Amino acid sequence: MIPPNASLVKYDNPVLVSRNTEKKTPRARNLKASPTPPANTGPVPNPPAKGKSPSSVADAKTQQTEEILNSILPPREWQEGGQLWVQQVSSTPATRLDVVNLQEQLDLRLQQRQARETGICPVRRELYSQCFDELIRQVTINCAERGLLLLRVRDEIRMTIAAYQTLYESSVAFGMRKALQAEQGKADMEKRISELETDKRDLERQVNELKAKCEAIEKREAERRQVEEKKHSEEIQFLKRTNQQLKTQLEGIIAPKK
């Protein structure tokens, strides 16, 4: 027989139920199946009526405790060689030594499976869940009402953790979408920047060409202006000389008559 997956919860020895693997015991838990929904945490069934022998009362109480334990921690079942094996949770009361051993086993498995001490760690959560289930089993054997109350606490914690996990996954998905959008926006902006830089270089080239043309025009106009000024200056000097000559001639003509 292949032993089932190791767990901190104490179970009885496996029992061969049937060679027909199609039949399964009610309320049994498959080792490969997903976790069962929270068990019914209603009131504990009434104790057996008075008037019965102490042995029958004890047997009824033991049976009642086993039923409560099976509702809290359903039996495990698995198949091997065409045979169906079932393993129920133990109804043996725990001693102080069992509690100490549970703590040692918890620390040992945390170390063996390299569970992280802080942060989110599925391994640490699994082991502590098994430890809590074992504590619920131990308490339920001594006081069924207290065990069922702890069961409600356990289910509430699991529901809260599941809600936080869903919120965390949604936040991660939202963050991934935003990151992808940011990357896409970054790529678009980089492309736009490249286009603007190309346009800037083209405009700078055009500005340089226009500056060169403007400087050439200014130089050409300056040279033309110098030529024009020189020409005008020469014409003025020529006119002045001509005027002086005419004035001299006129004075020479007028002077003898006096």
UniProtKB/TrEMBL annotation:
Entry superkingdom: Eukaryota
Gene Ontology molecular functions: dynein heavy chain binding
Annotated InterPro entries: Axonemal_dynein_light_chain
Family: Belongs to the inner dynein arm light chain family.
This protein's name: Axonemal dynein light intermediate polypeptide 1
Coiled-coil ranges per UniProt: 179-249
Chain spans, region Disordered: 1-63
Free-text function comment from the UniProt entry: Involved in sperm flagellum assembly.
One Gene Ontology CC term in the entry: ciliary base
Keywords annotated in UniProt: Coiled coil, Dynein, Motor protein
Polar residues bias spans: 53-63
Residue stretches of biased makeup (Pro residues): 35-48
Segments traversing the membrane: none
Keyword Coiled coil assigned: yes
One Pfam family matching this protein: Ax_dynein_light
The keyword Coiled coil appears for this protein: yes
